[in-house]
């Protein structure tokens, strides 16, 4: 049953144990329908701690709105700091969700079926966390909309479409909407299953409303699959465009250390790197708590770890290119930023970044380490920290020294910076645990399709999941 | 005999595997039945072909959304930057196409996804809380582990006794007559 007992041969099943359609439904749906399963200590404890941080978030935002953004540590020349670091960090984490649900779908990777719902939820909550930062960085978000969104306002002014910051508004809001649509479309047939399995009339009605009368008609499935595949097809360039556009916020400017052409691919790789780390960080405990080890198997963890390793190497290559550009530009401010990173007062953070993203993930080369759950979890934690440090290295470290040495000024975050940052982490975990409790964490109909495909030995030929393999 | 105020919706046969329902749909079509639908817990590949069902309306809806989105995005940018509030930024052209591509591109995706998805549900006739097929005995398992084939009554070949007998020959788990309100 458990894959690690079978050694390192790489023949772990995608679905473990003896399963039928009914047993898959039972395993997945009972997490939602048998609420007693959540009265265990891990759920309660995690949700409670996360809720405390949700409160810290609300206090931080409340005080920020009352007092103004002066409570944060960023000030000229470091006009961007924690707010943008955290924004980029969260957006990056969200990207793994779309990668798993859309790109792996197009590449017909059947192993995605058991983690796509989960990672799409992660995307949605991560983008919510991300959006909070730039919104509140405007200080008064409700009066800042006129330069964020194009609507006819009383001042008669419009957003500046030549600015990457407006591209960013369009990219992130589209990304959030499309991710939400993709997620909800995937949920509708499962709502139908939950409706039909529910025993209490009130719950039946509740799921029936969400299922919108889904009855599993093949004519519906036919159009549904077409729509799902096209949604995946358009989400793929979308996700690549979003982090590219985020990176253009930096690359289009003339700040030393930012103005490099490598930023878009380097950011996208970093996003996938951080995102897979977060998927594993959450999936590992949840599969243990809810007995989903037959559905999220060692093979999934192994492959996620391999993707993490690959993208980690791309990111590390990006770090090397940054140093190379700094030297090759021949510009004193560019070289100065590089030396400032290596030897300046923030040097510990830079070298910690290299340790976290460059050195420790190399453990994943070893098949033994990829199958040792505590090691994988530890590496994921380190990668999450490393990706946060990367944004710190890019953003405030470049801003603190600039073209004019007279205006150099150190940046130090305040307690409120940390309050809002840890608050969003709490919000994210809180939302994820609510999701696990109240919605089916794994896509039931895709798992049944996968089971059917696997049991008929044509797994290699036929596309799996809800997609139109012909 | 049927209860007063009801009419026949169709004759439903229940199967327990995707292969069985594909075989049944093929057999029904070979026997001359044209109006049928099947209800399955997951999309069964090959079943649409077996039923003789084709539809390409959804991809065109997405495409329509994409074109509309691109045009809407560019039109908005043109109106904002050229017509309503022209402003010279660093000597760049008023209509800076290069810079206008990213927002227009995001509009392509947004419009396509929203219009396509709403269109998919609309062409499927959803949301639709009531449908006579929900009255079929044991139909709650159609979303779990059973596969139902319904030969619908608006096909003139469907006749209660003969059709039931035909379906019996396909060795289903059960057969039931589904009625609809008049």
TrEMBL record, chain A:
Where, subcellularly, is it found? Cell membrane
Annotated Pfam families? NrfD
Gene Ontology cellular-component terms for this entry are: plasma membrane
Give the record's keywords alphabetically.
Cell membrane, Membrane, Transmembrane, Transmembrane helix
Q: What parts of the sequence cross the membrane?
A: 43-66, 86-106, 118-137, 165-188, 227-246, 266-286, 307-328, 348-365, 377-398, 418-439
Reading the lineage from the top rank, the first entry is: Bacteria
**What topology in the membrane does the UniProt record assign?**
Multi-pass membrane protein
| Family listed | Belongs to the NrfD family.
| Protein name per UniProt | Polysulfide reductase NrfD
Q: Which organism is it from?
A: Fimbriimonas ginsengisoli
State the organism's lineage.
Bacteria, Bacillati, Armatimonadota, Fimbriimonadia, Fimbriimonadales
Per the record, the gene is nrfD
From TrEMBL, chain B:
For the keyword Transmembrane helix, the answer is yes
Positions of transmembrane segments: 56-80, 100-123
The record's InterPro entries line, in alphabetical order, gives: ActD
> What PANTHER family does its record include?
LIPOPROTEIN-RELATED, QUINOL:CYTOCHROME C OXIDOREDUCTASE MEMBRANE PROTEIN
Q: What is this protein called?
A: DUF3341 domain-containing protein
- List the taxonomic lineage: Bacteria, Bacillati, Armatimonadota, Fimbriimonadia, Fimbriimonadales
Alphabetized Pfam families for the sequence:
ActD
This protein's UniProt keywords: Membrane, Transmembrane, Transmembrane helix
